[in-house]
Model the fold of this input.
Amino acid sequence: MTINVDDVVDVFKLHTDVYNSGYFAHLKGYLIKHLKKGELIFEEGVVIILTQYQRQTVLGDYAAVKGDYNIREIVNKNPGNNNSISILNKVFENLEKPTKIWLTIKQDNKRGINFYKKAGFIITGSKTRNCGTLDCYMMCKNLEKN
Done:
């Protein structure tokens, strides 16, 4: 399936409550970069950018090891329709296990935090990002061998 990056940009633009206008200036280039690397998923109106750590990376009080994954973005064209959970679980089924999935999320993003908790993520700590201006939670999900 071919992904139309303009369609993906349109999904992000539906969420100006989360993404400020400055975010969109470089969004298309960001999406193209991840598309070329095979890290961009766009299915049933859900956008996921999932990257894999190439080396150990310190995440607050924890460390992701080489081979763990990072959810960079997840955005749903129609929040609340459960497509995000079903697509995310489908993606997780295809990952080599055991592994961990890491993400950062703004502490004031209650809807997002509740979504990730519903998907089985736990808060592992907090950190400040973007030169100290945003307080974020670190969240993690362990994927066990089948």
In short: Helices lie at 5-13, 27-36, 83-93, 110-118. The chain has a mean pLDDT of 90.
